[in-house]
Design brief:
The complex is a heterodimer of chains A (372) and B (147). By secondary structure, chain A is of the alpha+beta class. Chain A has one domain: Cytochrome-c3 Hydrogenase, chain B (Orthogonal Bundle), CATH 1.10.645.10. Chain A contains 16 helices and eight strands. Chain A has a three-stranded antiparallel β-sheet. In chain A, strands 6-7-8 form a three-stranded antiparallel β-sheet. The longest helix of chain A is centred in the N-terminal third of the chain and has 30 residues. The termini of chain A are far apart. Chain B starts with a strand and ends in a 25-residue tail after the last strand. Classes of the chains: A alpha+beta (372), B alpha/beta (147).
């Protein structure tokens, strides 16, 4: 018998990770082709959470669709509210009062903090640091949810913004609570980083893993922290300032390597920048009304509009077509979560299964937004 | 601030290079013939002064008489943006050329349009349903679905 005949015959095999797996961040399935432990190919399978939100929009009034936007990216509902309201306001030419703009920015930035707390925490879970780092971040996120609860009575699906402003003004105790929270959070982030930033296990698992090149990121339409970690200095708050973001001083953190570690770093730095914006907004907020009077069944003139914001996950946009009736003729969501997954296949090729989980976790997706 | 390029001005530039490819243009957008889509899209991406390297999104709208496919492009270098459209008049088995070769970001979005609106993209490497299952009847985002 020759040695070739004796050698073990191997062949690639297919493994389904998900749809329900602790590290799939929702009902998501990856059909992975493996050679031993090495990923040869990955095919994503979506649709387990598809609810036909875009179709539902065509049967609801413009205002009536706002609660459904909460359920797209349910980790960052305020951002969805904001993007949708901006699109309708652009379509109908509605102006928003000054105070409402400030409150919107405060809500959007608090939402970014809450979102990044979850992503970073879940990322450590994926790295194998089960629940200890996660729970510290959850403790801080809880304080943000308390603030949201104070303004709209909800912890997850807020339905707080309206076309032309907000559903109601913030209560008197909100700003003092916010001003108390901000230094606490700042202290917490510094303390947290001190434990994690140079952690040997994190460096070993995340540095140099799942590299996304700048060119691929642009070509794939990647946005948000994932794009910035690959060295693209693109943040819609600076590049195309919506609402009143041009009034605040803040920097855009970005990475160079485009690996999992950079994506984590960018998010931590973004938390610090959001805190800067929040401090300025809390100081500058003027008194006044919080809503422009618009008809409950608003009929925007026939036409189309696209408005986008820098949501915690990337470019979140709404493309609306109006036929001058009370419901949108067409409502399309530009979902950062779905489009950011485009490059995943290239990012995971050649890595081991354990790395696949980390790379996937570092992208930050919500299935409600992917499947819609 | 991202500048929205005037559809009319871009249309003039396209017409110069590809005569007869622009159907109509307004300040906000322009409509391009389906058969010249790929050439025009490559022109928009590769001309240095336009440089539309980033595809924001693609979507489709059903107007009963035709489908309109909407492309929003941005140039990260120049920080300008534009929207262009193509129309597809065949309701039974509509086909459009795919732009995945130019912007890979179109991959899932074209599949989504096929899944929900029923427009096939020729040249797409993996043209199958994305959210609904194989064998699902009809295309739910069409206006005449269930009527």
């Amino acid at each position: 018998m020759t040695t070739t005949e004796m050698a073990l015959k191997t062949e690639p095999f297919v493994l389904n990770i998900g749809p329900v797996h602790p590290s799939t961040h929702g009902v998501y399935r990856m059909r992975v082709t493996l050679d031993g432990e090495v990923v040869l190919d990955m095919e994503p399978v979506f649709g387990y959470l598809h609810r036909g939100v875009e179709k539902l929009a065509e049967e609801r009034s413009y205002t009536g669709f706002i609660p459904l936007t909460d359920r797209l990216d349910y980790i960052a509902s305020m951002s969805n509210n904001l993007a949708y309201c901006l699109a309708v306001e652009r379509l109908a030419g509605v102006k928003v009062p000054e105070r409402a703009e400030y409150i919107r920015v405060i809500m959007a930035e608090l939402q970014r903090l809450a979102n990044h707390c979850i992503v970073v925490g879940a990322f450590f879970n994926d790295c194998g640091a089960y629940f200890t780092p996660f729970m510290y971040l959850f403790r801080e996120r809880e304080k943000i949810l308390d603030l949201f609860d104070m303004v709209c009575g909800q912890r997850l699906t807020y339905n707080y913004m309206r076309i032309g402003g907000l559903s109601q003004d913030i209560p008197d105790e909100f700003l003092p609570a916010l001003k108390k929270f901000l230094p606490q959070m700042k202290r917490f982030v510094d303390e947290y980083e001190c434990f994690i930033k140079q952690n040997e296990i994190l460096l070993a698992r995340a540095k140099g893993v799942g590299i996304l090149s700048r060119e691929t990121a642009i070509n794939c339409g990647i946005s948000g922290p994932v794009a910035r970690a690959s060295g693209i200095k693109w943040d819609l708050r600076k590049a195309d300032p919506y609402s009143i973001y041009d009034r605040f001083e803040f920097d855009i953190p970005f990475g160079e390597a485009g690996d999992c570690y950079d994506r984590y770093r960018v998010r931590m730095e973004e938390i610090k920048q959001s805190l800067r914006i929040l401090e300025q907004a809390a100081r500058q907020i003027p008194p006044g009304p919080v809503k422009t009077e618009v008809p409950h069944l608003i009929r925007p003139p026939a036409g189309e509009a696209y408005a986008h914001i820098e949501s915690p996950k990337g470019e979140l946009g709404f493309y609306l077509v109006s036929d001058n009736s009370i419901a949108p003729y067409r409502c399309h969501v530009r979902p950062p979560s779905l489009i950011n997954l485009t490059a995943l296949r290239e990012m995971v090729r050649g890595w081991k299964v354990a790395d696949l989980i980390i790379i996937f976790g570092s992208i930050d997706i919500t299935m409600g937004e992917v499947d819609r | 601030m991202t500048v929205a390029l005037s559809g009319k001005k871009v249309a003039a530039q396209i017409e110069e290079k590809f005569p007869g490819s622009v159907v109509e243009s307004s300040e906000g957008s322009l409509v391009i013939k389906g058969e010249s889509l790929l050439a025009v899209a490559a022109f928009l991406r590769d001309t240095p002064e336009l440089g539309f390297d980033y595809l924001n999104y693609i979507t489709a709208v059903d107007y009963y008489s035709h489908f309109e496919i909407v492309y929003q492009l941005t140039s990260l270098g120049h920080n300008h943006t534009m929207m262009f459209k193509t129309r597809c008049y065949r309701r039974e088995s509509p086909v459009m050329p795919s732009v995945v070769g130019l912007w890979q970001g179109a991959d899932f979005q074209e599949r989504e349009i096929y899944d929900l609106m029923g427009i096939k993209f020729e040249g797409h490497p993996n043209m199958k349903r994305i959210f609904l299952w194989e064998g699902f009847e009809g295309y739910p985002l069409r206006k005449d679905y269930l009527s």
